[in-house]
Amino acid sequence: MRFVLILGVLGASCSFYTPTVADCTLACGANDACPQGLSCRGGLCRGASAQADCECAVGKSRACGSAVGVCVPGTQACLPGGTWGECAGETKPSEELCDGVDNDCDGLVDVGPAQLIIDNNNGPYVAHWRLHGHDAGFTLVAVLEGPDGGGDVRALRYDRHFAPQGQSDSIVTFAADDWRRADSINVGQTIYVSYSKDPDLALSRVLPDGTVEHVATILDAGYDGRINVGAGARGVISNYLSLEGTARVATWALDGGATAVRDLALADGGVITWVGSSTDGTFSILEADAEDGGYVELVQDNVAPDPVNLEAPFWKSQRFITRPTGQLVHFDIIPVVMGMDDTRVVYWRDYAQQTTGRYFDVEVAGRWHDSDFTLSDKGDVVAVYGNETTQRLVVARIEGITSNELQLTRRQLDDVVVPLTNSSGNFLVAHVPGDPMFGVAWSTRNKVYARRFCAP
Fold first, then answer.
1. What is the pTM of this model?
2. Nearest CA-CA partner of 349 in 246, 424, 244, 276
3. From CA 333, how far away is CA 331, in angstroms rounded?
4. pLDDT tens by residue, 112-129
5. Among 3.40.1280.10, 3.30.70.100, 2.130.10.10, 1.10.10.10, what is the CATH number of 115-453?
């Protein structure tokens, strides 16, 4: 009997709100007037003890979803209790494809969303970071500046949509007064990084889980200048200028073989200005010819140099790639005439055929020394560079490289604004095998952005 009495007292002293059919169906009248027992909440009459306003009027509906790109809006109905139901009948955004339409409904055709991948950092240093594409996604190897003025080389890992997947252990740490130089290349899922800590040259590798393993150090290597790394059947090759003005090449065998360093002879009167490496382990040497002021390029196959006269009056920031057929080719953005208003051209050379003079008008003034390029799955060359006039990123594709009928197409990414005058001027492009889209990263002062795009 006592138990029943207590329940009766509690029930009489508490007021519980129970929604009725009148809730969220009747609009408030003049001066927010509502029927007795209801109060005006958000323009609709509700029970006086209701805890929240109505989201909507019961029985009403509205359009929902996006009408941008391939997306089609659906319909949302207001449910009893004044809450919006699910969006029915809409066509939702999907992953962006290279099909000429806006699949992810962001207003951009064949371009993915921009991702801020490095923020509030004083690095990466100009010309000392590299973007790699591999089966797992992308890896950015960069020399990042620390709070004490020193530098720390790390591999930052992302999936193919540039979602962060963590970073590696520190590969090498530079003191504030160290001369920072590093370059990298991926062999399968492993990233090999060559770097200089004066006077030594070293090689480390980053495994897929981010573990860093030190391979070997060459003591007193005589380094002077930039480092360019290539990898082929013989192992990893790191090329650099020596203090004596000769071309110095260091090699590491991936099978655990011996490390070797040797100097290569110059042409008569030549002065080395650049050393570079291709993806198959061969390398090239750029020399200034003291006799006529022109440039001579030597392609080295580890046996003997092969001189090739360049037709361009100036050359810089070279990078080499290898065709699927194994032929060494070269692609770059160079000026035809020196000066601030140079006409820029795309240049292509097939060393196997000693083909020269592959010039194409770029049509816009480009940051030729900031170009970067990669190969597509079918062997086309895809390049990126900056348009100094519009501050936009430009993409170029060279097709048909297995024959002499080369075709060049270009596309300016209007949505990618790059303040070239305020950036370190780096543009990097890489490709994940099997992905129809490419990845590009660029720096603006202390930030690095990345996004995926479809080549023209």
1. 0.79
2. 276
3. 7
4. 988 888 886 655 554 467
5. 2.130.10.10
